[in-house]
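To assess whether ligand presence alters the predicted conformation, the chain was also submitted together with iron/sulfur cluster. Input:
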Amino acid sequence: MIKPKITEIQAKSVFTKSGLPGSDWVINPYNGCLFGCMYCYAAQIARWKHPDEQWGSYLDVKVNAPQVLKQELSKLSRKLKTKNFGSVFFSSVTDPYVGLEAKYKLTRKCLQVLADFGYEGSVSVQTKSPLITQDIDILKKLKNVTVGFTVTTLDDKVSRFLEVMAPRVSQRIEALNQLHQAGIATYAFVGPLLPHFMNNPQTINKLLDKLQMVGVKEVWFEHINLSSKIKARLFEYLQKEAPHLINDFEKADTQEYRDKLDSIIYKAMKGRGLKMGLGKVIYHHSLSKKARKR
Ligand code: SF4
């Protein structure tokens, strides 16, 4: 494994307008992500300073992010208050709890800045890392916060295979439970819906059962995005590590497949009392600078 390249940088802005569905602002305390998921769309769009480096091998740390956020909120204060603040999402091109958050605590400090400012809009933090449970004290200070975990499978072997350096899914489930017990509203992001692994009623029902057991009240679903750049990186990996899966992944890139999966999901969700994010299964078919990582 390549030693990650960590660079401390000074950010000019961290409170940026979002083009993502369901959020008005995004905060990225880091650029790059050491979790290195094989399906990551940010792998293509968040690398303007690292065109030749392997995704998962670098992280830019915006060491002044909390101070910049404080200044930006102060400048925007009147506008935010007249527009009911708007919803904030952590993060669109990184995981806000990548391992080095334990050292830098930038996400924690940004959350503290929002709490001190009296931010009244919704704040949504999405991660794959149980490290977020260390910030339950700060999360509780926010007026309207939800924490989401990406859960693409219940099988640790599958999560290790495709979300190569991210914490195992069993740890995420435990963290969801812990947050729920602490009174924090939680959601799960089931995206991408993994071809071969997450495409039949039994697996999807089992996943929903588990999520409900740990107190999740809202679930987002997203079809896999197999646009050319994501596909090139993912398929190169599959070719090397599991060529027998390529056919199933190829087959998932059709409207027919998506329609069938949609109906399995709607049926599985029925009668559970779970809210579905955006009320539909999301599908981003092309790369966009504004597209959501999730
Ligand atoms: S999908 Fe999220 S956690 Fe995975 S590499 Fe991309 S930004 Fe990081």
